[in-house]
Amino acid sequence: RFCLPLVLASLPTMATGDEIAPALQDSWGDFWLFRFFVNAAGYASIVVPGFLLIQYFKRRNYLETGRGICFPVIKSCVFGSEVKSVHQDDGSLPPRAEPTESSTARQVFKLLFCAVGLQASYLTWGVLQERVMTRTYGATETDPGEKFKDSQFLVFMNRILAFTVAGLYCALTKQPRHGAPMYKYSFASLSNILSSWCQYEALKYISFPTQVLAKASKVIPVMMMGKLVSRKSYEYWEYLTAALISVGVSMFLLSSAPNRTVSTVTTFSGIVLLAGYIIFDSFTSNWQDALFTYKMSPVQMMFGVNVFSCLFTVGSLLEQGALLESLRFMARHSEFTAHAVLLSVCSACGQLFIFYTINQFGAAVFTIIMTLRQAFAILLSCLIYGHTVTVVGGLGIAVVFMALFLRVYARSRMKKRSKKLPLGEAPVQKV
Questions:
Q1: What is the pLDDT of residues 176-198, one digit of tens each?
Q2: Average pLDDT score over the chain
Q3: How many domains does the chain fold into?
Q4: Dist. CA 139–CA 369, nearest whole Å
Q5: Which of 186, 191, 312, 331 could be disulfide-bonded to 280 (CB atoms 3.0-4.6 Å)?
Q6: How many CB atoms lie within 10 A of CB 231?
Q7: CB 359 within 8 A of CB 95
Q8: 84: pLDDT confidence band, cut at 50, 70 and 90?
Q9: Cα-to-chain-centroid distance, residue 166
Q10: Does 2 map to a domain?
């Protein structure tokens, strides 16, 4: 009972080192836990009235009694227009396009296009993310410059562009008739915003390689969420690879160089933020998986989630007065403006490359490409920003990526075996 207040009181003093501590801990207003609760209060000011309105319309049986101009909008937001599709094998993925007499050269070109697009989008995104959150802008010989501190504004920038791209894509291409109640996207949206915020905020306390490796280990909480939310079962190899990932991450985090200083150690605040990212992100994927039981395309999912993400973030920013402050920062530093815009472009384009790759080549090929991307991201960050990795830490990274590739191999073997199963013997669901 008395430990929690003591831990919370000690958190502001646990900075990554002398170099970062003064900039981050000037006041309680700059402390991540305080900002987290302020942001959450802003989201609650939108969520609570929305929840009360939904309950009001349901109690009134508005679907049968409602009339007027607002009826179609309220019906779409609260009730939806279609029942769930009960017989979907895997609603979380779009139907894979079977190659129809396409030449080998054409298929190779498509694969290269997908791989290059994904690598370029997300490697650039990772480098820019670290640049924006850990370096100063406007530094001169006499002026040390200033850091951009509002992670929520970056989340808003990413979501507004993703919303625009998904909206244009849905408008220009044929999509399934939408049937899910719109309010259900708000759950995935809220967890997605919080996971992105934790991801940006964590870079103030930990190195980018540590963050990438922690993200690679989110398989474990995803499995836990799958058992809690979706009541899924898992094969023995999934537990084995999850254990290997845990061992690899532990080796990396606990390894220490002889000349290691406090400024390079992963802090308690960084670990808490990473845990928050993984938990929120695990909930997002499982909730989206449940939403795909309605007939919808991945781009419709992207549009629906980002509608609420834009609403939540802009509402919270306006309530805090942070939107104008962030815009003033952009006006003062044109370099930051270019970085923030390019960050959003990479994020939006990367999502479209994800959908196209899975549609053309399936989830296994996509997973391999993204796993390689994580390895390249660690290497690139070490080269550009000078992060050091010890021998034990390098072995830990190798164990993690070996386990990830083992998961891909085992999953592809299981899928091939499940196709040969007689009717009535359904394979075990996997994450």
A1: 888 889 999 999 999 999 999 99
A2: 80
A3: 1
A4: 37
A5: 191
A6: 8
A7: yes
A8: low
A9: 17
A10: no
Tens digits of per-residue pLDDT, 376-390?
888 888 888 887 778
Asked if the structure places residue 3 within a domain, the reply is no
* Two structure tokens written together for 245: 């990932």
Nearest to 273 by CA among 196, 335, 340: 196
C-alpha to C-alpha distance for 429 and 293, rounded to whole angstroms:
15
Question: 19-48 pLDDT, tens per residue?
Answer: 334 344 445 667 888 999 999 999 999 999
Query: Is residue 13 in some structural domain?
Result: no
Enumerate the β-bridge partners of residue 137: 146
93 to 137, 207, 360, 366: CA distances (angstroms): 41, 32, 11, 12
Q: Is residue 88 one of the residues assigned to a domain?
A: no
Q: What does the H/E/C string look like for the chain?
A: CCHHHHHHHHHHHCCCCCCCHHHHCCCHHHCHHHHHHHHHHHHHHHHHHHHHHHHHHHHCCHHHHCCCCCHHHHHHHHHCCCCCCCCCCCCCCCCCCCCCCCCHHHHHHHHHHHHHHHHHHHHHHHHHHHHHHHCCECCCCCCCCECCCCHHHHHHHHHHHHHHHHHHHHHHCCCCCCCCCHHHHHHHHHHHHHHHHHHHHHCCCCCHHHHHHHHHCCHHHHHHHHHHHCCCCCCHHHHHHHHHHHHHHHHHHHCCCCCCCHHHCCCHHHHHHHHHHHHHHHHHHHHHHHHCCCCCCHHHHHHHHHHHHHHHHHHHHHHHCHHHHHHHHHHHCHHHHHHHHHHHHHHHHHHHHHHHHHHHHCHHHHHHHHHHHHHHHHHHHHHHHCCCCCHHHHHHHHHHHHHHHHHHHHHHHHHHHHHCCCCCCCCCCCC
Host domain of residue 215: 31-81+104-136+148-416
